[in-house]
Design goal:
The protein has about 250 residues and is an alpha/beta fold. The protein has 9 helices and 16 strands. The protein starts with a strand and ends with a strand.
Length: about 250
């Protein structure tokens, strides 16, 4: 028997709804996917972003993370979904949303009306969005939630190695809450993330910020890198699955 915390059925004692593993499996199998808007990325991710789960997209600056995040909002609009865009970097551009929508034959006005952009300048504000997603009737129907960038505020508020434990603890708590919300409300969660350089066996590597703390909660992790006029995407988790080449145009990733 599996107990799932839920605020949707108050008849369950303590807010817990009990599911058998068979019932939980049926729920998992009923979850759909949101196309990335790129045939190459859809093939790489086996269909796109999963409902009820978290997808991470990470890479260095100017690798296309925000472009892909805005593109996800356009694809959600095409499905008739509402979206929440949690902007920690002040990088959300409504004019880019309009350009992508028009280029893809999606009603630009509908796209603007269906995306709620919420600025989060610190960890507290970022966490308050989770509460608003449940309590605000305008925001709660959202099926797509983008957090761009998920680790930025945590890195600023808990800097340095001496605060690593507190930073990872706060980040883990936040991700646990958003993962629960994703499952309960069948939302697609898309997190963008930065990279940090580490040295392993004498070799310098770029890894996603948050490391294993983030990795515990994501179902898929996609690495982006720009080389010349192309952006390359690798599926890093759950299994390494090749590399695709893409260009960013008016439509976004193609």
């Amino acid at each position: 028997m599996l107990s799932v915390a839920t605020d949707q059925d108050p008849s369950h004692i303590g807010g817990l709804k009990s599911l058998t593993f068979s019932e939980a499996l049926k729920v998992a199998r009923s979850l759909g996917k949101l196309s990335t808007g790129s045939s190459g990325l859809d093939n790489l991710t086996r269909g796109g972003y999963e409902e009820g789960k978290i997808t991470e997209v990470f890479g260095p600056s100017n690798s296309g993370k925000t472009q892909l995040a805005i593109q996800a909002c356009v694809m959600a609009t095409a499905r008739g979904w509402k979206s929440v865009y949690v902007d920690t970097e002040s990088t959300f551009r409504p004019e880019r949303l309009v350009q992508m929508a028009e280029s893809r034959g999606v009603d630009a006005e509908a796209a603007l009306e269906s995306v709620f952009s919420l600025r989060a300048r610190d960890v507290e504000a970022q966490s308050r969005v989770l509460k608003r997603m449940v309590e605000d009737p305008r925001v709660s129907p959202a099926k797509l939630v983008v957090v761009d960038t998920v680790t930025k505020n945590f890195s600023l508020e808990f800097p340095g190695t001496e605060k690593t434990g507190r930073r990872q603890g706060a980040l883990g708590s936040y991700l646990n809450r958003i993962a629960n919300d994703a499952y309960l409300h069948r939302r697609v969660i898309l997190l963008t993330n930065r990279v940090a350089s580490i040295t392993r066996n004498g070799v310098s590597l770029d890894v996603s910020v948050g490391g294993l703390t983030v990795g515990r909660f994501v179902s898929k992790s996609i690495r982006l890198a720009r080389e010349g006029g192309f952006v390359y995407a690798n599926l890093e988790f759950p299994t390494e699955a090749g590399r695709i080449e893409s260009k960013i145009t008016e439509k976004g990733f193609e």
